[in-house]
């Protein structure tokens, strides 16, 4: 709780600098260290790189010499996937579900975290504990009743909202848990100054707190987005046909065309790219969010 | 213990004249309250409305899609129901008896427990080793961190599909490489062998989730003050001694929190197993989540699925409470 008081924007940089600045005896790499690092990199990247290269080979090449490199390089597999309208439909569905989920999580999450962080009232900790307890309810536990609730009671089966709403609900606990200490860390003087100027607490929320909590909201938004992008179980039960998201598409493609190994590699590799690009762009946010969740 | 003592001292000082320190601390909030009056009551109502306005959307969503389905699962677990028509055939705890007497469910539960224990036993030392390695100043450090964390960001489905292809019997690259160095891979394939399938999945889970452990441990390492290292160096401690006596003990809270996350995740495992084996061969890799999805969607035994959900939740809860009480208590105490 207490360690997260610095704004996440500056904290890692400061510690980074301090750590780097420390004296040299324990720093630096010997050949053994580099060798170990090399093994780790190969083990981590190997499967992904093999899959990407496999997409540039023919099925004959793959069967003839599984451990070989593309020779010649074949682009048909990737072109085939890119010309497959289903691939783009899956992408569109994944984007729509993830955007709706993220928007709901960020808006509702920061609203709920505000009074939990900055109001003094009876039952505040109890209310916070309701959200903390939510961390213990994985979507898995409730997935069968959710399936019935969404398809039969709400009539949202096979729609974007039918997946996004429950996903947002299950992402709220971690969002509130991350945002609350973040909002708590904003200096009390800001609030007092705003009150002296005659700003109400709601005005303070809109005009001062929201702009200042941008980094925190980006962090929880990125986590919600990645969670939704990768989600499988709930979409598996709720979405079919043209409404399927990318993970469902990957899974179905790999079983439907299981003989076409090169095609499966191409499809899976292309399906990975949005997540990887997003990860590289947002890496700091994702890492900060996870680290903040553990510290908070 | 110390908290209780000061608290009771404060309480007694409010009525009788107690220790001076206690009296001044107690005095401040009391003075603040008496200054309020009618304006305070008005602003109190306004404050309540504001709180309701801010919390209601999140709470509403949470109740509708989290609390309500969980309650429904409990209700469903008391009926024999195929998902059509009203809940009529009340069977009490019969579904629970059937779940707990089912060899498949018990096997799935045991698999979950094996995954919980082995994930921690493998990822903790490995994650620590990699974190200590990456914590040294070396060329390409930032890139290394990005690479090691990358599998964590991939969908379990994507990772599962790729590994499934790599592990194909005979034609897969892994079997080919093993044969090339003179080893014999299992004839039914790694995922087709009753004894090996679960361990194969555990290895892949390690590949996928080691990055989380490393990133969290690295964050913990940055919190270790440099003065400690400098002092240890002055005392002539070796690198290994410093890690063992200073770094790892100070990482305690981070490790305990990570282990908690890992445990809860292992208890819910579904995606990876569903993609790679569907719980097979012959339920050798089934988990509780696989069991309840099979019963709920494939066989329309919603009562059984509900009972399995409740059992899964209860086990996760017991784990969480025991873990909080036995292992994490000192962290929260120290932090408060």
Automatic annotation (TrEMBL), chain A:
InterPro entries: MetI-like, MetI-like_sf. Its main location: membrane. Keywords: Cell membrane, Membrane, Transmembrane, Transmembrane helix, Transport. Belongs to the binding-protein-dependent transport system permease family. Residues 1-26 are annotated as: Disordered. The chain crosses the membrane at residues 32-53, 95-114, 126-148, 160-183, 204-229, 262-281. The keyword Transport applies. The keyword Ion transport does not apply. It is found in: Cell membrane. Residues 91-282 form the ABC transmembrane type-1 domain. This is Raffinose/stachyose/melibiose transport system permease protein. It is a multi-pass membrane protein. It holds the Pfam family BPD_transp_1. Residues 1-14 have a biased composition (Polar residues).
TrEMBL record, chain B:
The chain crosses the membrane at residues 51-71, 113-134, 146-166, 196-219, 258-277, 302-323. SUPFAM superfamilies: MetI-like. It comes from the Bacteria. CDD domains: TM_PBP2. Keywords: Cell membrane, Membrane, Transmembrane, Transmembrane helix, Transport. Residues 1-37 are annotated as: Disordered. It is found in: Cell membrane. It holds the Pfam family BPD_transp_1. Its main location: membrane. Residues 109-323 form the ABC transmembrane type-1 domain. InterPro entries: ABC_transporter_permease (IPR051393), MetI-like (IPR000515), MetI-like_sf (IPR035906). The keyword ATP-binding does not apply. It is a multi-pass membrane protein. Coiled coil: none annotated. Belongs to the binding-protein-dependent transport system permease family. This is Raffinose/stachyose/melibiose transport system permease protein. It comes from Isoptericola halotolerans.
